[in-house]
Amino acid sequence: MFQLQLEEVNKLFTITSAEFKFEEINNEPQVSSSEKNFPWEEMTGKQKKATKISLEAMRDYFNWDYLKEKMPFRNSGLNKLVDKHDFQLLPLETYLWNTANSNISLRKIAQEKQVPLEKIQQTALSMIFAGLLEEVSIINMPMKTTKYSIASSSKSNFADINNTNISNNQPKISNSLLSNLIAFLRKHF
Description:
Layout: H1 2-11, H2 50-59, E1 77-80, H3 91-99, H4 106-113, H5 117-129, E2 133-136, H6 155-162, H7 175-188
Helix pairs in contact: 1-2, 2-5, 4-5
């Protein structure tokens, strides 16, 4: 019966849009009122954390178009949000967990594992929703440096430095990373 209930919850992940309306029936808790108001027959005595249900449901999620803007960016990395967990992870999830807290981009992980980047992003998003990981920015931009001697520098050298064109090919920042950054800044500043 518990598995049937979980399947019903998993169906919620297929809904593309919904509206919820909560109505207060009375001021008394439902459990203490008459037995016909509480579904005692459906009580199994089993329980599962919502984060685990979320991860399991996301594994079978099929319509990722609705979550594309939430997916971590390909040049982002992952950080662990918890030190330990009691999730039963799949092999790809385990790999992402083990490589979190390092400066490896999702794109590089996809290349190393020879798995499509989109699959890596989907798995990472599932683990983010489960509260295991967070998306972090990785700065791997090589810097081109030029030595200038102050004694031999002329005004034209400084003019050349100031007129250097800055590339407009900056990576797009994902909404997930931006949301996490804003939440961090609000919390700590």
